[in-house]
């Protein structure tokens, strides 16, 4: 009995029902609230916001809940929502120099204006499972200290004062928007950085790691890594000044890399840059290494064939929503194409067999 | 008679370092020009500028086109230049891997230029590829093999066939015998000399090997630090070098 | 679903997509870059086609969605539901009644007529992609009409297999200028690319839209001595008896039993209805 082409509707409904039940899990265990995810799964929420390119902790938490904790699926949900939102304009560039830092470290200077602030980091924890967390219990409040007043200047500004680090040219014209314009290659740095900021953390991590292992090595030092709150402002033409819309948490990483020099330019350090939404430190670090590796042409370096140097390769493959969709589409039916391949192979085999018979006869 | 190629004041620098400067010469139909010099002398830069692969800072490269007579190649649009590159010009690279498609068969390598200019009869394309394999002394039975299964000398001969199949009038060669061992070099030079003569080709050959120009070139230019320091008939320059640098080149090579 | 605009996309986005479509129609076969949006279905599952459909749909349209020629395959169901929900348009399975048909991998058997639009879902729009992986290089090749490589591929097929071994996504030349990938339709469908209807191709992940205006000249690439051939399984349909339609092979048991049935379910059902 031939039934294969019927029943798609019923099957989809049944699958969705089952999915909803699986998402909820054992009904005897209390259901997670969005607020719990937002407050206690903050790094997951931050990753979803960073790769989803949308600052909204509540929606990101909802997406994680709906996606059963599959973060790429959650990023996808958030992106699909974001894309329907009207776009009123672009904010004034945020001033990360004025960031209220709750973490700020430099690997290039032992101490510096503004100080080293470890903040809430896993860095020096011992990775031992804490079985106390399995039992429910409140943690004692952390010790508090008043922040030292005063600005926290960027480390590269210190190097810049001596002319030790390469100056970045001011961008020209409006910054392109990848979510509103197609990616055109070759891309300028602003567009590249934008793509990397939305890119998959794991992909960028792998690429950055490959540069460290010699595939497009750039000898990176972490000049500075900072996380904190910045104010987002927007210019209102009628008012003639910028007004604050709210605050977002950002992570910024600037690397100081091997110096370049030429007959016309004395040696100078070069830099890579990473800026990401939320507390997404691994991503910001990786981004700055990949950014630096992609700058080989502009800095007069050799293309050594490393993946991280290949703009087209990196930008075409860093988006996990695109990647996972295309990867998974091979689950869809391909009967028609397969059928035509089947016909062709049969025909070729038949012809080969006939050829062999003919030869044998001759 | 009109020169096939007139080069005037060709200059190309990389930032502060000089590629080549103020190079001028004429190339006549059927003539082979050798450009010699050690590595870094600017000869490859010059060749790449002539072939439209590098954009020079100044100068003119005037080619006597079949349709419209002398035209400055550097001021042509890219489509027109590419068309020339597929029809009237050929470029033989030192490393055959740069000039061949290693992933497709020898027949397709030779046939590609024919197809690029509109050949659409499989049987004809294959017949011409077979003929050309024979002319460059490759067994036509290897027509469906990929070049990676060929020896270095065969690969280089295949590259020559791929380039000459459309009957170009001007061939650029960049160290065509470099990287081959001596006996293979001799055979290749012999083949090239025969093809150039039989087809009446004009060629610009860049090499650091004076034996190559001695055999192939009618005239030579000697380059040093991006400039032409001496030029003339090959035998004249090699037998009676005037410039101290040419004397040095000749003495260090020909004594062997 | 009241939180979303008609057919899901906001009007600005639709306008942007329509501009790309108009450009694509003006330069047949040329791939127009467009700012593809995230859609609520994954990339590779028809986002390009869905965006094109969303941009051209009007409330009066009657929509048909097929995948592999069938209206009832899961992805076709999912996309049809999406438009029922977000646009509230009428839907149909009848080719003749539809004004907009979104398809994956097939052209309906029933000839399309003026006034209909066929929207293709395209996975890889670049016909040169598997010969030359770099976008910057393939765009240059299109610009300079540098298509020798395309025939190199066909030459290699014949040298190796004795015939052109491309059976679907068979490349075509449009109006004597651009080489185009007709999306992974079987080459059996290629002759019907010349049509009275408007044909739009949307590639979401790759951010490209291209088009064939009505009556546009479309030639499948070939050699004079190895001409293009639209082939299919050499059987009649086991259900409706049609001999000229593209067939799916259905395995009926695990002892090698199989049957061949029309891939176009509407075509097959209509024929059976008429016969009854």
From TrEMBL, chain A:
GO biological process entries: organic phosphonate metabolic process
Key words of the record: Lyase
Pfam family, one: PhnI
GO molecular function, one term: lyase activity
Top-level taxon of the source organism: Bacteria
Cited InterPro entries: PhnI
Protein name per the record: Carbon-phosphorus lyase complex subunit PhnI
Automatic annotation (TrEMBL), chain B:
InterPro entries, A to Z: AAA+_ATPase, ABC_transporter-like_ATP-bd, ABC_transporter-like_CS, Oligopep_ABC_C, P-loop_NTPase, PhnK
Cell compartment(s), UniProt: Cell inner membrane
Name recorded for this polypeptide: Phosphonate C-P lyase system protein PhnK
NCBIfam families in the record: CP_lyasePhnK (TIGR02323)
Recorded topology in the membrane: Peripheral membrane protein
Cellular component annotations (GO), alphabetically ordered: plasma membrane
Domain ABC transporter: 5-250
GO molecular function, one term: lyase activity
Pfam families: ABC_tran (PF00005), oligo_HPY (PF08352)
UniProt KW keywords: ATP-binding, Lyase, Nucleotide-binding, Transport
Domain of life: Bacteria
One example of a Gene Ontology biological process annotation: peptide transport
Automatic annotation (TrEMBL), chain C:
Gene Ontology biological process terms from the UniProt entry: organic phosphonate catabolic process
Function: Catalyzes the breakage of the C-P bond in alpha-D-ribose 1-methylphosphonate 5-phosphate (PRPn) forming alpha-D-ribose.
Database matches in InterPro entries: PhnJ (IPR010306)
One Pfam family named in its UniProt record: PhnJ
EC id: 4.7.1.1
Name of this protein: Alpha-D-ribose 1-methylphosphonate 5-phosphate C-P lyase
A GO molecular-function descriptor: metal ion binding
Catalysed reaction, written as an equation: alpha-D-ribose 1-methylphosphonate 5-phosphate + AH2 + S-adenosyl-L-methionine = alpha-D-ribose 1,2-cyclic phosphate 5-phosphate + methane + 5'-deoxyadenosine + L-methionine + A + H(+)
Keywords: 4Fe-4S, Iron, Iron-sulfur, Lyase, Metal-binding, S-adenosyl-L-methionine
Superkingdom of the source species: Bacteria
Assigned protein family: Belongs to the PhnJ family.
